[in-house]
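Progress note, project year one: complex with zinc ion.
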Amino acid sequence: MRWTIGDVTVTKVVELVQALPLAGLLPDATPEALEPHASWLQPHFVDAEGSTSLSIHSFVVESQGRTILVDTCVGDRAIPGMDGLRGPSDFPDRLAAAGFPVDTIDVVCCTHLHFDHVGWNTRLRDGRWVPTFPRARYLFCRQEYEHWAAEPSGYALNVGDTVAPLVDSGLADLVDPDHAVTGEVRFVPSHGHSPGHVSVLIESAGERALITGDATHHPVQWAEPEWGMGGDWDPAMGAEARRRLRAEHAQGPDGRPPTLVLGTHYAAPSAGRIVGDDEGWRFVAEVPEPVPAEGP
Ligand SMILES: [Zn+2]
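Model obtained:
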């Protein structure tokens, strides 16, 4: 799937999709609580039983001659706490098939350092974790890195393999939470799910898009910003971040068009816009143009 935002293009490359009851991810999202939102959540984001498809994917952002990979999924490694379950080994092939072999990536950005956002930063070669993207600068929010480097734990248990080798070998830049990656792409702070979490804002030729990271895991959180994910680091801060992002990116009272929101874990089509009116808040899914097939 590919979207165009002014002069920027964004391509989604999927690693894993897992079906699960939404309440397993957002404890408040019981089938009864979802009922008032069913009309706009179905069919893309929940089914009639309140289950969803949790998608783990990367977004490749092309801006001003730079190819930027936002989040790097689980990786070819055991998933922490998942009893031997591993990520797939062919994700670099999928990136290449989408037009982005590993040596074309100029910048890798991680919205935060949980295992499903940093996995392909490195891969195991001859017993050592080495950079998967040999030409890339890796960008991490400084306060996110300092927090987890001091105490690898929970969802960030594997920073020692996925992030530390890049910092230690000088391939990483520890940056502020409003860091500008290009003139069109920058981080925006959305702390709460983790201590230094950032989202990624794209602004080009009068159009805007927001890559959420895990500021939200599911579109229902735009209507119910208090519904946190069980593993949020600071649930109140996470809810505040969602309210602030909603105010900034929903359709404006002045007729400002709503931002294209690209959800880092949203089921396909993974994109849409936040709309608020007399009927309340909802998220309107937007189906992108298909990626043209490559010629022979
Ligand atoms: Zn995640």
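The mean pLDDT is 94.
The pocket of zinc ion is lined by residues 114, 116-117, 214, 265 (CB under 6 Å).
No further modelling is planned for this target in the current period.
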